[in-house]
């Protein structure tokens, strides 16, 4: 006997029954209306987490101005609290993608720790997603289509209806006499998904009636394959995740040598896994830049520019620098009270321990030709000291230098790489960390 919609929903939400709250993404369309009604009905007989709904108003068409009131009316009838969020959709090449990004950004802002956002995507959506991505040349991760669950902000995104067809949702809606919004833009064939839905899938299903089910099943197989690739990546990254020589430099990094021992395909798989939370990943045509970075001479210090930052190589180590890393000012700063730490715009914090030298003190950045006094070694060229230390080049321009007038008094101790201060004080630099916006 075929399980009911209620039985499927209960089974697919079982792992999340102890969450502090369930938030329903409620557009007012067929899918989310059925999901909301199902959950409202279940809450009368089952012990569920507190339910609430979120409606995102994109402001892209005049008809949408009436939708918040419709959604409010539905939620009032079901006794479910509703929050309406208005967003600005950024212009771009793909209006669909821009609207989706704005929508999920709004969801991320309201999902609390451990809470679950439930969305109404179904099996037909999954099949459309697979075919759409296949036509764009996606890899295994993209062809796995929409995951049934994934992290979202401090909580989770769960799609409990992925094994339900659009036809089942329509039958439930008619049986319970539900009313829903028909978005006029869903009929516009200029949007790729609409074209697939209205022109491609009818032809496919006329010839292959099980096309939607088969494509959705293929997405499940590819999702399993991606899981195995992720496990392999974690194994390969374990060898490369060696302690960095500069533990005070809080940037993601990997040792290059263990990666070099892998085949090209495993290198790409490991790097995709490592880079996924850091940046949008490049398409296959851009991986030649990885080979150029990997194979460059040791002193070349190459970099690979990606969508949200740069992958640098320094010696035999890879370093990830987010785009925000370059957002700092190298202007001079006065330090009127060295007894208190000095905030360096976009560059962390500087503090001085011990008895401060006489002022006025100024912080400047490297221009070249600096000479510093090193106890036991005399006056040394700063560039040579930095070369000896192996400090990555992308850090050197951010190194704060302490001046008294035109005299260079000292350089941060850099976690003991060298002791640069001949007196009874020490300069400590705490670079900006990922928690301060570098990730």
From TrEMBL:
* An annotated Gene Ontology molecular function: tRNA(Ile)-lysidine synthase activity
Q: Which InterPro entries match?
A: Lysidine-tRNA-synth_C (IPR012796), Rossmann-like_a/b/a_fold (IPR014729), TilS/TtcA_N (IPR011063), tRNA_Ile_lys_synt (IPR012094), tRNA_Ile_lys_synt_N (IPR012795), tRNA_Ile_lys_synt_subst-bd (IPR015262)
What is the scientific name of the source organism? Pseudomonas trivialis
User: Highest taxon of the source?
Assistant: Bacteria
Which residues are involved in binding ATP? 27-32
Annotated compartments: Cytoplasm
Q: Which HAMAP family match?
A: tRNA_Ile_lys_synt
Outline the extent of the Lysidine-tRNA(Ile) synthetase C-terminal domain: 361-429
Q: What is this protein called?
A: tRNA(Ile)-lysidine synthase
What's written under domain? The N-terminal region contains the highly conserved SGGXDS motif, predicted to be a P-loop motif involved in ATP binding.
> What's any one GO cellular component for it?
cytoplasm
Keywords assigned by UniProt, alphabetized: ATP-binding, Cytoplasm, Ligase, Nucleotide-binding, tRNA processing
What are the BP-aspect GO terms?
tRNA modification
Q: What task does this protein carry out? A: Ligates lysine onto the cytidine present at position 34 of the AUA codon-specific tRNA(Ile) that contains the anticodon CAU, in an ATP-dependent manner. Cytidine is converted to lysidine, thus changing the amino acid specificity of the tRNA from methionine to isoleucine.
Similarity annotation: Belongs to the tRNA(Ile)-lysidine synthase family.
The encoding gene is tilS
Q: What is its EC number?
A: 6.3.4.19
Substrates-to-products reaction catalysed: cytidine(34) in tRNA(Ile2) + L-lysine + ATP = lysidine(34) in tRNA(Ile2) + AMP + diphosphate + H(+)
Q: Which SMART domains match?
A: TilS_C
